[in-house]
Amino acid sequence: MTQAPRPDARTFPAEARTPRAARIPTPGSPAGDGPRQPDPRTPADGPPVHHWPVDHLGALAFDPLLHRLLREEPIARITLRFGEGEAWLATSYEHVRDLSSDPRFSRALTVGRPVTSMTPHTVAPVGGIGRTDPPDHTRLRRLVAQAFSRKRAAELRADAEETARRLVATMVAQGPPADLAEAVTGPMPERLLAGLFGVPAADFGRLQTWREVILSSNHSQEKGDAVKAEIAAYFRGLADLRSRQPGDDLFSELTTLQSAGALSRPELVSLSVMVVLNTLDQIRNQAATMVYALLTHPEQLALLRAEPTLVPRAVEELLRFIPQRNGVGLPRIATEDVAVGDVLIRAGDAVYVSYLAANRDPRVFTEPDRLDVTRDEAPHLAYGNGPHYCLGASLARMEFEVILSTLLRELPHLRPAVPPERVRWRRGSINRGPETLPVAW
Ligand code: HEM
Protein backbone atom coordinates (compact mmCIF):
# COMPACT_ATOMS: atom_id res chain seq x y z
CA MET A 1 0.00 0.00 0.00
CA THR A 2 1.36 3.41 -0.94
CA GLN A 3 1.93 5.57 2.10
CA ALA A 4 -0.35 8.57 1.80
CA PRO A 5 1.16 12.00 2.32
CA ARG A 6 0.34 13.54 5.72
CA PRO A 7 -2.67 15.78 5.77
CA ASP A 8 -1.88 19.36 4.97
CA ALA A 9 -3.47 21.22 7.85
CA ARG A 10 -2.72 24.64 6.37
CA THR A 11 -5.46 26.69 4.88
CA PHE A 12 -4.73 28.45 1.63
CA PRO A 13 -3.98 32.11 1.39
CA ALA A 14 -6.04 33.98 -1.17
CA GLU A 15 -3.03 34.19 -3.50
CA ALA A 16 -2.75 30.40 -3.60
CA ARG A 17 -6.22 30.09 -5.09
CA THR A 18 -6.33 28.80 -8.62
CA PRO A 19 -6.08 31.06 -11.64
CA ARG A 20 -9.58 31.95 -12.82
CA ALA A 21 -9.39 30.10 -16.11
CA ALA A 22 -8.91 26.73 -14.36
CA ARG A 23 -11.68 27.11 -11.80
CA ILE A 24 -14.84 25.09 -11.48
CA PRO A 25 -17.18 27.99 -10.62
CA THR A 26 -18.57 28.22 -7.12
CA PRO A 27 -22.32 27.62 -7.38
CA GLY A 28 -24.28 30.69 -6.47
CA SER A 29 -21.49 33.17 -7.08
CA PRO A 30 -22.04 35.28 -10.20
CA ALA A 31 -20.57 32.86 -12.77
CA GLY A 32 -18.23 31.89 -9.94
CA ASP A 33 -16.14 34.85 -10.90
CA GLY A 34 -15.57 38.43 -9.88
CA PRO A 35 -14.41 39.62 -6.47
CA ARG A 36 -15.93 37.85 -3.45
CA GLN A 37 -17.50 39.97 -0.77
CA PRO A 38 -15.17 40.03 2.24
CA ASP A 39 -16.30 37.45 4.80
CA PRO A 40 -15.98 38.72 8.35
CA ARG A 41 -15.17 35.22 9.62
CA THR A 42 -12.40 34.62 7.12
CA PRO A 43 -8.98 35.02 8.68
CA ALA A 44 -6.37 36.74 6.53
CA ASP A 45 -4.55 33.47 5.79
CA GLY A 46 -7.39 31.37 4.38
CA PRO A 47 -10.92 30.06 4.79
CA PRO A 48 -12.31 29.59 8.30
CA VAL A 49 -12.36 26.13 9.83
CA HIS A 50 -15.75 25.04 11.14
CA HIS A 51 -15.82 22.57 14.00
CA TRP A 52 -18.74 20.23 13.37
CA PRO A 53 -19.63 18.25 16.50
CA VAL A 54 -22.66 16.72 14.68
CA ASP A 55 -25.18 17.16 17.47
CA HIS A 56 -28.15 14.86 17.87
CA LEU A 57 -30.97 15.74 15.50
CA GLY A 58 -34.39 14.19 15.86
CA ALA A 59 -37.19 13.50 13.42
CA LEU A 60 -36.62 15.21 10.06
CA ALA A 61 -34.53 18.15 11.32
CA PHE A 62 -31.86 19.22 8.86
CA ASP A 63 -28.36 19.94 10.15
CA PRO A 64 -28.05 23.73 10.57
CA LEU A 65 -24.35 23.81 9.64
CA LEU A 66 -25.03 21.99 6.37
CA HIS A 67 -27.89 24.38 5.66
CA ARG A 68 -25.60 27.39 6.17
CA LEU A 69 -22.54 26.07 4.33
CA LEU A 70 -24.65 25.07 1.34
CA ARG A 71 -25.70 28.69 0.95
CA GLU A 72 -22.58 30.51 2.10
CA GLU A 73 -19.53 28.27 1.63
CA PRO A 74 -20.27 25.34 -0.69
CA ILE A 75 -16.72 24.12 -0.23
CA ALA A 76 -15.52 24.67 3.33
CA ARG A 77 -12.93 23.54 5.88
CA ILE A 78 -14.13 21.42 8.80
CA THR A 79 -12.99 19.40 11.78
CA LEU A 80 -15.07 16.59 13.30
CA ARG A 81 -15.03 15.00 16.77
CA PHE A 82 -12.49 12.24 16.15
CA GLY A 83 -9.34 11.72 14.08
CA GLU A 84 -6.78 14.36 13.23
CA GLY A 85 -6.38 17.48 11.17
CA GLU A 86 -8.92 19.19 8.94
CA ALA A 87 -10.84 18.25 5.84
CA TRP A 88 -12.76 19.92 3.05
CA LEU A 89 -16.51 19.56 2.96
CA ALA A 90 -18.46 20.00 -0.28
CA THR A 91 -22.17 20.76 0.09
CA SER A 92 -23.45 22.08 -3.26
CA TYR A 93 -25.05 19.63 -5.69
CA GLU A 94 -22.54 20.54 -8.36
CA HIS A 95 -19.40 20.15 -6.22
CA VAL A 96 -20.70 16.97 -4.59
CA ARG A 97 -21.52 15.42 -7.96
CA ASP A 98 -18.18 16.46 -9.49
CA LEU A 99 -15.98 15.42 -6.57
CA SER A 100 -17.66 12.05 -6.03
CA SER A 101 -17.06 11.03 -9.64
CA ASP A 102 -13.56 12.47 -10.04
CA PRO A 103 -10.89 9.74 -10.20
CA ARG A 104 -8.32 12.17 -8.75
CA PHE A 105 -9.86 11.47 -5.32
CA SER A 106 -8.94 8.16 -3.73
CA ARG A 107 -10.61 5.99 -1.13
CA ALA A 108 -7.69 3.56 -0.82
CA LEU A 109 -5.50 6.38 0.50
CA THR A 110 -7.78 6.76 3.54
CA VAL A 111 -6.49 3.43 4.88
CA GLY A 112 -4.08 4.13 7.74
CA ARG A 113 -4.85 7.86 7.72
CA PRO A 114 -6.38 9.27 10.92
CA VAL A 115 -8.57 11.73 8.98
CA THR A 116 -10.85 13.91 11.10
CA SER A 117 -14.04 11.84 11.41
CA MET A 118 -17.43 11.30 13.01
CA THR A 119 -16.69 8.02 14.73
CA PRO A 120 -13.80 6.73 16.84
CA HIS A 121 -13.28 3.93 14.29
CA THR A 122 -13.73 3.82 10.53
CA VAL A 123 -16.98 2.03 9.86
CA ALA A 124 -16.05 0.69 6.43
CA PRO A 125 -13.58 -2.17 6.78
CA VAL A 126 -10.05 -2.01 5.36
CA GLY A 127 -9.96 -3.85 2.03
CA GLY A 128 -13.70 -3.34 1.81
CA ILE A 129 -15.44 -2.05 -1.25
CA GLY A 130 -15.81 1.47 0.16
CA ARG A 131 -12.08 1.86 0.70
CA THR A 132 -10.64 0.61 -2.56
CA ASP A 133 -9.97 2.29 -5.89
CA PRO A 134 -9.99 0.83 -9.41
CA PRO A 135 -8.95 -1.73 -10.51
CA ASP A 136 -9.67 -3.57 -7.19
CA HIS A 137 -12.89 -1.65 -6.69
CA THR A 138 -14.09 -2.39 -10.24
CA ARG A 139 -13.31 -6.10 -9.79
CA LEU A 140 -15.28 -6.29 -6.52
CA ARG A 141 -18.26 -4.41 -7.91
CA ARG A 142 -18.36 -6.67 -10.98
CA LEU A 143 -18.48 -9.79 -8.81
CA VAL A 144 -21.68 -8.69 -7.10
CA ALA A 145 -23.20 -6.42 -9.75
CA GLN A 146 -25.71 -8.98 -10.93
CA ALA A 147 -26.91 -9.89 -7.45
CA PHE A 148 -27.72 -6.24 -6.79
CA SER A 149 -28.99 -5.27 -10.23
CA ARG A 150 -32.37 -3.76 -11.02
CA LYS A 151 -33.30 -7.02 -12.71
CA ARG A 152 -32.53 -9.05 -9.57
CA ALA A 153 -34.51 -6.58 -7.44
CA ALA A 154 -37.47 -7.02 -9.80
CA GLU A 155 -37.20 -10.82 -9.43
CA LEU A 156 -37.23 -10.49 -5.64
CA ARG A 157 -40.25 -8.17 -5.61
CA ALA A 158 -42.94 -10.87 -5.48
CA ASP A 159 -41.27 -12.42 -2.43
CA ALA A 160 -40.96 -9.04 -0.77
CA GLU A 161 -44.65 -8.32 -1.45
CA GLU A 162 -45.67 -11.58 0.12
CA THR A 163 -43.44 -10.93 3.14
CA ALA A 164 -44.83 -7.41 3.59
CA ARG A 165 -48.40 -8.64 3.29
CA ARG A 166 -47.81 -11.34 5.93
CA LEU A 167 -46.02 -8.99 8.32
CA VAL A 168 -48.82 -6.42 8.08
CA ALA A 169 -51.47 -9.14 8.53
CA THR A 170 -49.72 -10.39 11.71
CA MET A 171 -49.50 -6.85 13.04
CA VAL A 172 -53.20 -6.26 12.31
CA ALA A 173 -54.16 -9.56 13.94
CA GLN A 174 -52.43 -8.45 17.15
CA GLY A 175 -54.38 -5.18 17.11
CA PRO A 176 -53.40 -1.55 17.50
CA PRO A 177 -51.23 0.11 18.62
CA ALA A 178 -48.13 -1.50 17.14
CA ASP A 179 -44.52 -0.54 16.59
CA LEU A 180 -44.14 -0.44 12.81
CA ALA A 181 -40.34 -0.69 13.06
CA GLU A 182 -40.59 -3.88 15.11
CA ALA A 183 -43.47 -5.37 13.14
CA VAL A 184 -42.62 -4.48 9.54
CA THR A 185 -39.63 -2.32 8.63
CA GLY A 186 -37.17 -4.28 10.83
CA PRO A 187 -38.15 -7.81 9.71
CA MET A 188 -38.38 -6.91 5.98
CA PRO A 189 -34.59 -6.65 5.44
CA GLU A 190 -33.98 -9.76 7.58
CA ARG A 191 -36.16 -11.83 5.24
CA LEU A 192 -34.44 -10.28 2.23
CA LEU A 193 -30.99 -11.15 3.58
CA ALA A 194 -32.00 -14.65 4.54
CA GLY A 195 -33.22 -15.32 1.00
CA LEU A 196 -30.69 -13.41 -1.08
CA PHE A 197 -27.54 -13.62 1.00
CA GLY A 198 -28.14 -16.86 2.87
CA VAL A 199 -27.69 -15.49 6.40
CA PRO A 200 -29.25 -18.05 8.78
CA ALA A 201 -32.36 -16.60 10.46
CA ALA A 202 -31.07 -17.73 13.87
CA ASP A 203 -28.09 -15.34 13.57
CA PHE A 204 -30.03 -12.11 13.18
CA GLY A 205 -30.07 -11.37 16.93
CA ARG A 206 -26.26 -11.26 17.02
CA LEU A 207 -26.01 -9.34 13.76
CA GLN A 208 -28.48 -6.71 14.99
CA THR A 209 -26.46 -6.23 18.20
CA TRP A 210 -23.23 -5.78 16.22
CA ARG A 211 -25.00 -3.42 13.81
CA GLU A 212 -26.00 -1.14 16.68
CA VAL A 213 -22.42 -0.83 17.94
CA ILE A 214 -20.64 -0.51 14.62
CA LEU A 215 -23.03 2.06 13.22
CA SER A 216 -22.92 4.30 16.28
CA SER A 217 -20.56 7.06 17.33
CA ASN A 218 -21.31 6.56 21.02
CA HIS A 219 -18.74 4.00 22.08
CA SER A 220 -15.02 3.63 22.56
CA GLN A 221 -12.60 2.66 19.80
CA GLU A 222 -11.82 -0.56 21.77
CA LYS A 223 -15.49 -1.57 21.78
CA GLY A 224 -15.81 -0.79 18.06
CA ASP A 225 -12.67 -2.80 17.26
CA ALA A 226 -13.84 -5.74 19.38
CA VAL A 227 -17.21 -5.88 17.61
CA LYS A 228 -15.58 -5.55 14.20
CA ALA A 229 -13.35 -8.51 15.07
CA GLU A 230 -16.40 -10.55 16.18
CA ILE A 231 -18.36 -9.85 13.03
CA ALA A 232 -15.34 -10.63 10.83
CA ALA A 233 -14.90 -13.95 12.69
CA TYR A 234 -18.61 -14.66 12.16
CA PHE A 235 -18.34 -14.25 8.37
CA ARG A 236 -15.08 -16.25 8.23
CA GLY A 237 -16.94 -19.06 10.03
CA LEU A 238 -19.90 -18.77 7.65
CA ALA A 239 -17.49 -18.90 4.67
CA ASP A 240 -15.93 -22.11 6.05
CA LEU A 241 -19.40 -23.60 6.43
CA ARG A 242 -20.57 -22.55 2.95
CA SER A 243 -17.43 -23.83 1.26
CA ARG A 244 -18.26 -27.27 2.72
CA GLN A 245 -22.03 -27.00 2.21
CA PRO A 246 -22.81 -24.42 -0.48
CA GLY A 247 -26.39 -23.15 -0.70
CA ASP A 248 -28.30 -21.35 -3.41
CA ASP A 249 -27.41 -17.88 -2.21
CA LEU A 250 -25.06 -14.98 -2.89
CA PHE A 251 -22.75 -15.70 0.03
CA SER A 252 -22.17 -19.28 -1.18
CA GLU A 253 -21.51 -17.93 -4.67
CA LEU A 254 -18.96 -15.46 -3.33
CA THR A 255 -17.33 -18.20 -1.25
CA THR A 256 -16.93 -20.30 -4.39
CA LEU A 257 -15.46 -17.30 -6.21
CA GLN A 258 -13.09 -16.76 -3.32
CA SER A 259 -11.88 -20.37 -3.51
CA ALA A 260 -11.26 -19.80 -7.24
CA GLY A 261 -9.13 -16.73 -6.41
CA ALA A 262 -11.51 -14.06 -7.76
CA LEU A 263 -11.47 -12.24 -4.43
CA SER A 264 -9.54 -12.61 -1.18
CA ARG A 265 -10.95 -13.85 2.12
CA PRO A 266 -10.66 -10.36 3.74
CA GLU A 267 -12.49 -8.89 0.72
CA LEU A 268 -15.25 -11.48 1.05
CA VAL A 269 -15.61 -10.73 4.76
CA SER A 270 -15.62 -6.95 4.43
CA LEU A 271 -18.05 -6.99 1.52
CA SER A 272 -20.40 -9.17 3.56
CA VAL A 273 -20.18 -6.88 6.57
CA MET A 274 -21.06 -3.86 4.41
CA VAL A 275 -23.95 -5.58 2.66
CA VAL A 276 -25.49 -7.16 5.74
CA LEU A 277 -25.16 -4.17 8.08
CA ASN A 278 -26.29 -1.63 5.47
CA THR A 279 -29.31 -3.70 4.57
CA LEU A 280 -30.39 -4.27 8.18
CA ASP A 281 -29.85 -0.68 9.20
CA GLN A 282 -30.84 1.37 6.18
CA ILE A 283 -34.01 -0.43 5.18
CA ARG A 284 -35.36 -0.52 8.73
CA ASN A 285 -34.55 3.13 9.43
CA GLN A 286 -35.38 4.67 6.10
CA ALA A 287 -38.64 2.81 5.58
CA ALA A 288 -39.81 3.81 9.08
CA THR A 289 -38.70 7.41 8.51
CA MET A 290 -40.56 7.48 5.17
CA VAL A 291 -43.75 6.40 6.91
CA TYR A 292 -43.17 8.99 9.66
CA ALA A 293 -42.62 11.71 7.03
CA LEU A 294 -45.87 10.82 5.27
CA LEU A 295 -47.86 10.60 8.50
CA THR A 296 -46.62 14.05 9.49
CA HIS A 297 -47.35 15.50 6.02
CA PRO A 298 -50.98 14.42 5.69
CA GLU A 299 -51.57 16.36 2.46
CA GLN A 300 -48.76 14.36 0.81
CA LEU A 301 -50.12 11.11 2.20
CA ALA A 302 -53.56 12.02 0.85
CA LEU A 303 -52.05 12.52 -2.63
CA LEU A 304 -50.50 9.06 -2.50
CA ARG A 305 -53.70 7.46 -1.24
CA ALA A 306 -55.58 9.05 -4.10
CA GLU A 307 -52.96 8.03 -6.65
CA PRO A 308 -50.92 4.97 -5.55
CA THR A 309 -49.06 4.89 -8.89
CA LEU A 310 -47.15 7.86 -7.47
CA VAL A 311 -45.36 5.55 -5.00
CA PRO A 312 -42.10 5.14 -6.98
CA ARG A 313 -41.82 8.90 -7.44
CA ALA A 314 -42.70 9.45 -3.77
CA VAL A 315 -39.92 7.07 -2.72
CA GLU A 316 -37.39 9.12 -4.71
CA GLU A 317 -38.67 12.36 -3.20
CA LEU A 318 -38.55 10.88 0.30
CA LEU A 319 -34.96 9.78 -0.36
CA ARG A 320 -34.13 13.34 -1.42
CA PHE A 321 -35.92 14.97 1.49
CA ILE A 322 -35.06 12.73 4.45
CA PRO A 323 -31.74 13.41 6.18
CA GLN A 324 -30.80 9.71 6.36
CA ARG A 325 -27.66 10.10 8.38
CA ASN A 326 -25.79 12.21 10.87
CA GLY A 327 -22.70 14.01 9.60
CA VAL A 328 -20.88 12.66 6.57
CA GLY A 329 -19.66 9.30 5.25
CA LEU A 330 -16.21 8.23 4.13
CA PRO A 331 -13.72 10.86 3.03
CA ARG A 332 -11.61 10.78 -0.11
CA ILE A 333 -7.99 11.88 -0.47
CA ALA A 334 -6.86 14.15 -3.33
CA THR A 335 -4.11 12.49 -5.36
CA GLU A 336 -3.17 15.79 -7.02
CA ASP A 337 -3.98 19.48 -6.69
CA VAL A 338 -7.57 20.11 -7.82
CA ALA A 339 -9.30 23.49 -8.13
CA VAL A 340 -12.88 23.47 -6.88
CA GLY A 341 -14.83 26.71 -6.94
CA ASP A 342 -12.47 29.28 -5.61
CA VAL A 343 -10.32 26.99 -3.49
CA LEU A 344 -7.41 24.78 -4.30
CA ILE A 345 -7.58 21.30 -2.83
CA ARG A 346 -4.01 20.14 -2.44
CA ALA A 347 -2.72 16.63 -3.12
CA GLY A 348 -3.05 14.73 0.18
CA ASP A 349 -5.99 16.76 1.48
CA ALA A 350 -9.00 14.89 2.86
CA VAL A 351 -12.35 15.74 1.28
CA TYR A 352 -15.89 14.93 2.39
CA VAL A 353 -19.01 15.37 0.32
CA SER A 354 -22.47 15.77 1.85
CA TYR A 355 -25.09 14.04 -0.28
CA LEU A 356 -27.73 15.27 2.17
CA ALA A 357 -26.80 18.90 1.58
CA ALA A 358 -26.66 18.39 -2.20
CA ASN A 359 -30.22 17.09 -2.05
CA ARG A 360 -31.36 20.39 -0.53
CA ASP A 361 -29.51 22.66 -2.95
CA PRO A 362 -31.84 25.56 -3.85
CA ARG A 363 -29.95 26.03 -7.15
CA VAL A 364 -31.23 22.60 -8.23
CA PHE A 365 -34.48 21.95 -6.34
CA THR A 366 -37.39 24.38 -6.08
CA GLU A 367 -38.26 24.96 -2.43
CA PRO A 368 -35.79 22.25 -1.43
CA ASP A 369 -36.98 22.04 2.18
CA ARG A 370 -40.52 21.10 1.12
CA LEU A 371 -41.63 17.47 0.72
CA ASP A 372 -43.48 17.17 -2.58
CA VAL A 373 -44.26 13.63 -3.71
CA THR A 374 -45.09 14.88 -7.21
CA ARG A 375 -41.68 16.53 -7.66
CA ASP A 376 -39.95 15.76 -10.94
CA GLU A 377 -36.59 17.52 -10.93
CA ALA A 378 -32.91 16.53 -10.94
CA PRO A 379 -31.98 13.06 -9.64
CA HIS A 380 -31.28 13.04 -5.90
CA LEU A 381 -27.88 11.94 -4.59
CA ALA A 382 -29.09 10.03 -1.53
CA TYR A 383 -27.43 6.83 -2.76
CA GLY A 384 -24.20 8.64 -3.55
CA ASN A 385 -22.68 9.13 -6.97
CA GLY A 386 -19.79 7.91 -9.10
CA PRO A 387 -18.00 4.57 -8.74
CA HIS A 388 -18.99 4.17 -5.07
CA TYR A 389 -22.70 4.65 -5.84
CA CYS A 390 -24.70 2.56 -3.37
CA LEU A 391 -24.60 -1.09 -4.24
CA GLY A 392 -27.96 -1.74 -2.61
CA ALA A 393 -29.87 1.09 -4.30
CA SER A 394 -32.14 -1.08 -6.47
CA LEU A 395 -32.90 -3.50 -3.66
CA ALA A 396 -33.59 -0.70 -1.20
CA ARG A 397 -35.85 1.10 -3.71
CA MET A 398 -37.80 -2.07 -4.32
CA GLU A 399 -38.25 -2.72 -0.59
CA PHE A 400 -39.39 0.87 0.06
CA GLU A 401 -41.91 0.73 -2.78
CA VAL A 402 -43.26 -2.58 -1.53
CA ILE A 403 -43.52 -1.43 2.10
CA LEU A 404 -45.28 1.84 1.24
CA SER A 405 -47.62 0.27 -1.32
CA THR A 406 -48.59 -2.51 1.09
CA LEU A 407 -49.30 -0.08 3.92
CA LEU A 408 -51.36 2.22 1.66
CA ARG A 409 -53.38 -0.70 0.37
CA GLU A 410 -53.87 -2.72 3.54
CA LEU A 411 -54.14 0.09 6.09
CA PRO A 412 -56.03 3.02 4.53
CA HIS A 413 -56.47 4.56 8.00
CA LEU A 414 -52.88 4.19 9.21
CA ARG A 415 -52.05 6.99 11.67
CA PRO A 416 -49.53 7.82 14.40
CA ALA A 417 -50.44 6.24 17.75
CA VAL A 418 -48.59 8.96 19.69
CA PRO A 419 -48.12 12.66 18.99
CA PRO A 420 -45.16 13.00 16.55
CA GLU A 421 -43.04 14.80 19.17
CA ARG A 422 -43.20 11.67 21.35
CA VAL A 423 -41.56 9.42 18.76
CA ARG A 424 -38.05 8.57 20.04
CA TRP A 425 -35.20 8.92 17.54
CA ARG A 426 -31.92 7.04 17.60
CA ARG A 427 -29.10 8.90 19.32
CA GLY A 428 -25.39 8.65 18.62
CA SER A 429 -25.94 6.57 15.52
CA ILE A 430 -24.63 7.15 12.04
CA ASN A 431 -27.88 6.44 10.26
CA ARG A 432 -30.90 8.29 11.60
CA GLY A 433 -34.30 6.75 12.18
CA PRO A 434 -37.00 6.27 14.81
CA GLU A 435 -36.23 3.81 17.60
CA THR A 436 -39.87 2.80 17.50
CA LEU A 437 -42.75 4.03 15.36
CA PRO A 438 -46.05 3.56 17.22
CA VAL A 439 -48.97 3.40 14.79
CA ALA A 440 -52.68 2.64 14.85
CA TRP A 441 -55.18 2.08 11.98
C1 HEM B 1 -31.95 4.13 1.93
C2 HEM B 1 -31.08 3.17 1.87
C3 HEM B 1 -29.64 3.44 1.53
C4 HEM B 1 -28.99 4.64 1.37
C5 HEM B 1 -29.56 6.04 1.51
C6 HEM B 1 -27.63 4.32 1.02
C7 HEM B 1 -26.66 5.26 0.75
C8 HEM B 1 -25.37 4.98 0.38
C9 HEM B 1 -24.35 5.95 0.17
C10 HEM B 1 -24.53 7.46 0.30
C11 HEM B 1 -23.22 5.30 -0.16
C12 HEM B 1 -21.84 5.87 -0.32
C13 HEM B 1 -21.53 6.53 -1.58
C14 HEM B 1 -20.09 6.98 -1.54
O1 HEM B 1 -19.27 6.34 -0.87
O2 HEM B 1 -19.77 7.97 -2.18
C15 HEM B 1 -23.52 3.89 -0.15
C16 HEM B 1 -22.61 2.93 -0.46
C17 HEM B 1 -22.87 1.59 -0.30
N1 HEM B 1 -24.08 1.04 0.04
FE1 HEM B 1 -25.81 1.99 0.41
N2 HEM B 1 -27.48 2.97 0.99
C18 HEM B 1 -28.69 2.39 1.28
C19 HEM B 1 -28.97 1.06 1.33
C20 HEM B 1 -28.07 0.08 1.10
C21 HEM B 1 -28.38 -1.32 1.11
C22 HEM B 1 -29.75 -1.93 1.33
C23 HEM B 1 -27.22 -1.99 0.87
C24 HEM B 1 -27.06 -3.46 0.76
C25 HEM B 1 -26.50 -4.05 -0.21
C26 HEM B 1 -26.17 -0.99 0.67
C27 HEM B 1 -24.85 -1.26 0.39
C28 HEM B 1 -23.89 -0.33 0.11
C29 HEM B 1 -22.51 -0.65 -0.21
C30 HEM B 1 -21.89 -2.03 -0.25
C31 HEM B 1 -21.88 0.56 -0.47
C32 HEM B 1 -20.40 0.76 -0.86
C33 HEM B 1 -20.31 0.78 -2.37
C34 HEM B 1 -18.93 1.09 -2.88
O3 HEM B 1 -18.12 1.69 -2.14
O4 HEM B 1 -18.65 0.76 -4.04
N3 HEM B 1 -26.73 0.24 0.83
N4 HEM B 1 -24.85 3.72 0.18
From TrEMBL:
Pfam families, per the entry: p450
The UniProt entry, under InterPro entries, shows: Cyt_P450 (IPR001128), Cyt_P450_B (IPR002397), Cyt_P450_sf (IPR036396)
List all membrane-crossing ranges: none
- Region Disordered, as annotated, extends over 1-51
The UniProt family comment states: Belongs to the cytochrome P450 family.
**Identification of the protein by name:** Cytochrome P450
